[in-house]
Design a protein that fits this description.
This protein is about 35% helix and about 15% strand. It is of the alpha/beta class. The chain has two domains: about 150 residues, no CATH class; about 180 residues, no CATH class. The strands form four sheets. A six-stranded mixed β-sheet has the order 10-9-11-12-13-14. The protein has a four-stranded parallel β-sheet with strand order 2-1-3-5, with helices on one face.
Length: about 325
C-alpha cells in the first residue's frame, strides 16, 4: 500500500513554510511516505493507488481540479478559499467532493460553502492542532520570545515590487505610501525592549533555494524552536495553531481586513489569545486583558479550546489509515 504526502509549488519570490508544517501534521499518521504529491498537480497523478490526507489550502490550480481517481483521499482540515470556490465547485468538482464526503473543513466558511452546494461537510479545525508530538517538557522551555511575521498582510517593499502590475496597483491604491505602517502599528502594542531582543522569524523564505527535503527540515526546526519558546507573537495561523499543540504561550495578531484572508479564520480565531488591530488607525484591543504593551514579562495562558478539535482529528486520521491497512490485508 502506498502513502503520499502533499508538497507545494513556490511562487516567483518565496514559499510558505506553513504549508510544510501542515504536511508534517499529516505525516504523523502515515506508516511511511512513498511519494510526495504536488498539491497543484494532483490531477496528473497516474501511479498505483495511493492514500493521501488532503488537508490545507486549495488550490492555485483552479482550472485543473479534481485529483486523480488513483488518489484515495481523506478530507480533513480542508480549506477552499472564496477566490477558488467558484472554479473548484463546478459540476465535476461537486461530484468529486460528494464521492468522498463527508468533507472535514479547516474553517467554518469552507464547511458552509460546501454545504451550500449539497456536499456533506463539517468543521474540523486545522490538523496542525495535532502537532503535540513535537511537544517538550516544560523544563526545556527557555527565555526566547519569537516574533513571527506580524501583520504580514500589510504592504512591504518586497510585496509592492513583486512584479510590475502589482507595483502599479500599489501606486493606484495608495499601498506604496503605507510602507511604514507595519512598524508603527507593531510598536503600538509591543514595547521597544522586546522589539529589540526578540527573535524574528520569516515563514516565507526565498524561492529557488531549497529542496523539498530541506523545506521539511526547516519546518521541523521551527517546530522544535517554538516548542521551547517562552512566548510567540505571530499573525501566521500555521505558527499560532502549532503553538497551541506545543503548549507554547502564543498571541495571535489579527490585522486582516480582506475577506480573502478573514474567511480562512472562521471558527479558528476564538482559539487564541488575540490582539485585534484596526489596520487603518492602528488602534488595538485584546481578548485577554492586556494592559499596556506586550513586554518580556508578559504572561499569557493558552485557552485550551483546541483540544476539543485536536482529539477528533487524531481519531479520524488514525481510523482512516487503520481501515486502509485492514482493507489491504483482506484484499
Amino acid at each position: 500500500m502506498l502513502y503520499g504526502l502533499l508538497t507545494y509549488e513556490e511562487n516567483k519570490k518565496f514559499f510558505n513554510v506553513g504549508d510544510n508544517i501542515q504536511s508534517l501534521a499529516a505525516k504523523q499518521f502515515l506508516p511511511k511516505v512513498d511519494t510526495l504529491l504536488n498539491r497543484e498537480k494532483l490531477g496528473e497523478y497516474d501511479g498505483d493507488k495511493i492514500q493521501l490526507i488532503m488537508n490545507g489550502w486549495f488550490t492555485h490550480n483552479i482550472h485543473h481540479w479534481v485529483p486523480s481517481d488513483n488518489i484515495d483521499p481523506l478530507f480533513v482540515s480542508f480549506h477552499i478559499n472564496n477566490t477558488a470556490a467558484p472554479y473548484m465547485l463546478s459540476e465535476k468538482g461537486i461530484a468529486y467532493l460528494k464521492k468522498h464526503e463527508p468533507i472535514g473543513c479547516r474553517d467554518q466558511f469552507s464547511a458552509d460553502t460546501l454545504k451550500a452546494k449539497g456536499i456533506d461537510a463539517y468543521f474540523t479545525g486545522c490538523l496542525t492542532l495535532t502537532l503535540d508530538s513535537y511537544k517538550v517538557d516544560d523544563s526545556e522551555r527557555g527565555e526566547d520570545i519569537y516574533i513571527v511575521d506580524p501583520l504580514y498582510s500589510y504592504p512591504t517593499w518586497e510585496k509592492v515590487t513583486y512584479h510590475t502590475k502589482r507595483f502599479l496597483r500599489s501606486i493606484q491604491s495608495g499601498a506604496i505610501f503605507e510602507l511604514g505602517k507595519m512598524k508603527k502599528h507593531i510598536g503600538n502594542f509591543i514595547d521597544d525592549d522586546l522589539l529589540k531582543s526578540a527573535i524574528y522569524v520569516n515563514q516565507e523564505p526565498p524561492a529557488g533555494k531549497y529542496t523539498d527535503e530541506q523545506k521539511f527540515e526547516m519546518a521541523e526546526d521551527l517546530l522544535r524552536k517554538y516548542a521551547k519558546a517562552k512566548l510567540v507573537i505571530t499573525s501566521r495561523i500555521h505558527c499560532a495553531l502549532p503553538c497551541l499543540a506545543l503548549g507554547t504561550p502564543v498571541i495571535f495578531v489579527n490585522g486582516f481586513d480582506s475577506f480573502v484572508d478573514s474567511c480562512r479564520f472562521d471558527g479558528i480565531l476564538e482559539l487564541f489569545n488575540r490582539i485585534d488591530i484596526d489596520s487603518k488607525t492602528g488602534k488595538w484591543t485584546s481578548n485577554f486583558g492586556l494592559e499596556g504593551k506586550v513586554n518580556k514579562d508578559t504572561k499569557v495562558k493558552n485557552l485550551g479550546k483546541h483540544h476539543a478539535l485536536a482529539e477528533p482529528l487524531k481519531a479520524k486520521c488514525r481510523a482512516f489509515i487503520a481501515q486502509k491497512i485492514s482493507e489491504n490485508q483482506h484484499a
